[in-house]
């Protein structure tokens, strides 16, 4: 669930645009270069983008008795890095802001920051750390995408708390008090959904590794030895 | 090929579903959107004085139209994912069968989806 249209006052909506726009531009640049160098990644890019489309359209019920949706951005982050995920996330957020009155144009910057930048960054870092530590590949994908999803909604809570500190004055205590309230709404609702996102992401990764691991190896997403192990081929 | 991961994911989905069925039948939770609840928190913090600075430029005229557009979004995404996974799977299968490697570096094992 994104921040609704009009619910971030000046200066906050401008600030989040200022933070997000450079990342999006960098992402577009990186994407152009990547596509020029390796055209064969285009289908994979489409799959990663499509996964965000599917997951962010599924509003799921949570234990808190309210609904929210996963983001699906973790897959793109693992395959292409956080900057390109920001571009893909922006496309989905625009679709939802324009056609579904979900999220909004003034809050687009803030929503891109949480769903397109912080979430994917967290997923990317956890993935890299997990692979370095030689953990099970699917477990690492699960952890990376689940925590990436959750980080998105923690960020949303922080963004709202900054804009609406308790008592109207931005002090640390007021910020914390507001953050708690928003986190109960967003972050707690998100816990089971993040677990679902992690599970489904791991499954999709299994299928991609099965049919198209060569591109992933070439992009240095995954090492050849890991692919061999996953498929049970002796090295 | 091992179906362990599928079983684990299925298990997680089942736990989630059972939890939902149990919760929705024993409590009177409304299952509204978390963004609507956030609006309530904003009203509580500001004492109901906050006026949104902008309105959505277009809103789906009804809940039905909204679910249509959400469904469309999911369908587009699912179609793309299915198309490419199927394309790669078939490509790999026939490459293996014909013993054709060409420029493709995909490995010649019999594992598939």
Detailed description of the structure:
The complex is a heterodimer of chains A (235) and B (113). Chain A has 235 residues and is an all-alpha fold. Chain A is built from eight helices and two strands, in the order H-H-E-E-H-H-H-H-H-H. In chain A, a hairpin with a 4-residue loop joins strand 1 (60-61) and strand 2 (66-68). In chain A, helix 2 (42-55) packs antiparallel against helix 3, helix 3 (73-80) packs antiparallel against helix 4 (82-99) and helix 3 packs across helix 5 (108-132). The longest helix of chain A is centred in the last third of the chain and has 47 residues, at 172-218. Chain A is globular, with a radius of gyration of 18 Å. The termini of chain A are far apart. The model of chain A has no long low-confidence stretch (mean pLDDT 94). Chain B folds into two domains: 1-54, no CATH class; 61-113. Chain B is 64% helix and 2% strand. By secondary structure, chain B is mostly helical. Chain B has three helices and one strand. Chain B has helices at residues 4-26, 34-46, 63-98; one strand at 32-33. The interface between A and B is large, with 76 and 65 residues.
Topology:
The complex is a heterodimer of chains A (235) and B (113).
Chain A: H1 12-37, H2 42-55, E1 60-61, E2 66-68, H3 73-80, H4 82-99, H5 108-132, H6 137-163, H7 172-218, H8 224-231
Antiparallel strand pairs in A: 1-2
Helix pairs in contact in A: 1-4, 1-5, 2-3, 2-4, 3-4, 3-5, 3-6, 4-5, 5-6, 6-7
Chain B: H1 4-26, E1 32-33, H2 34-46, H3 63-98
